[in-house]
Every structure is written in structure tokens, then in C-alpha cells.
Amino acid sequence: DIQMTQSPSSLSASVGDRVTITCRASHGINIYLAWFQQKPGKAPKSLIYAASSLQSGVPSKFSGSGSGTDFTLTISSLQPEDFATYYCQQYQSYPLTFGQGTRLEIK
Amino acid sequence: QLQLQESGPGLVQPSETLSLTCTVSGGSISRNDYCWGWIRQPPGKGLEWIGNINYSGSTNYNPSLKSRVTISVDTSKNQFSLKLSSVTAADTAVYYCTRRRVNWPTDSWGQGTLVTVSS
Questions:
Q1: Strands A70-75 and A62-67
Q2: Which residues of B touch A23 (CB under 8 A)?
Q3: Fewest beta carbons within 10 Å, which of A53, B27, B47, B90?
Q4: How many Cβ pairs closer than 8 A exist between chain A and B?
Q5: C-beta atoms of B49 and A98 within 8 A
Q6: Residues B63, A95: C-beta atoms closer than 8 Å
Q7: Mean pLDDT throughout B69-82?
Q8: What's the average model confidence in pLDDT over B59-67?
Q9: How far apart are CA B24 and CA A65, in angstroms?
Q10: Is the dihedral of CA B4, B9, B14, B17 positive or negative?
Q11: Which of A5, A46, A96, A98 best tests the B interface by mutation, with the highest count of B CBs <10 A?
């Protein structure tokens, strides 16, 4: 299995800040990396696929980068609705695996 | 607009079989470019991929659950199902049914259903 490791596990930031979350794969996954946002009591929402492509309707404040084993999700100009938990997922090979999540909290 | 809706018992006895159905509306489950699957999330924890199936019935399962999992599809009802046998308290989770295009990540999720394993 490909292990996905996110850092940090939790992050405190203020409205207007820019934050970066990192995801590292235990084996190279090319660009087969997706990012999801999950709010309490809700299903995850797809943000980014193929490491850097935005899903339709996702604002450009979200951006992704990376390839191989190291990836980042950057959120600029944080707004109250951005405070949530973020997960990365590799889909290069089965079993599909997720990072453990990064909880983004308001400072 | 595609919608996925999980249904099934919210409480399952230990050692019994968990059974859930996902009804797909707004799109055909018979498309050969999509896979239909299940992901679960224990309370307060992260996401775990369970497995998926394509329109022809070809399956892929998480090795950690493979001996207990069966995913099947009923194209006549536009539904697919999950069976997880010999459940324990560790299987208590919110179960999501999902769709993904072949070789792409999950792009659609049901609202999720909480299944509690308890006597």
C-alpha cells in the first residue's frame, strides 16, 4: 500500500492568512493526487485532482502543486468558510489511500 | 445532477453482516467510464477506502477488509451495494457511497450514513 502522510495534523490561522498543507507519499505517484475539504457532519468535497487541477466551481484561492512523492495544498486569503479538515488521496494504485487529515482552525 | 443516497440499518449486531445500498439518480450506473464504491469514516477519525466496482461487476477491495467485503451492482435498479461480514465495534463508522471516473479520484459522494455495531 502507498502511505500518505500529511503535515501538520492541525493548524491555527487567522482570517486573511495564507496557509500551506503538505502531503507526502511513501512511493512515487506521479500526479495522481487529489485534495478534499470536509466540514463537520458533511461529506468530503473534491477540491483538486491531478495534483494541481481545480474541480469545477472551486475558487482559485485554492491551489495545488507537486509530483512524485511531495505535494502541497495552498489556501490564500482564508475566509471563515475555509476552516475545515483537509485530506489528500492518492489514486495511482489500489488500494486508494488517504492522508490522516489536517484540521484548519481559526486562531 | 448526479445524486447518491445510502440506505440500510443504522445498528448492526456484532458478528453479523452490515448491508448498505446506494441508489444513484441523475445518471446511469451502467456507464463504462465510472466506478462505484464505498469509503468509511469512524467517528472523529480519517477516511478509509473500502472498495469499488464497475458496471460490468469487476471489483477492487482494500486488502485490510477484502476477506469480509462484497460490493455488487444492480443495473436494473441503478443501485450498488456493500456487504461487510463479521462486524465488530471497529466497523462503526459513517459509510459513504461514491463515484469516480476510471483512473480519476472520487468526484461524487453520498451524504453518508452512520452504522453502529453494538449489541
A1: antiparallel
A2: none
A3: B90
A4: 52
A5: yes
A6: yes
A7: 95
A8: 95
A9: 33
A10: negative
A11: A96
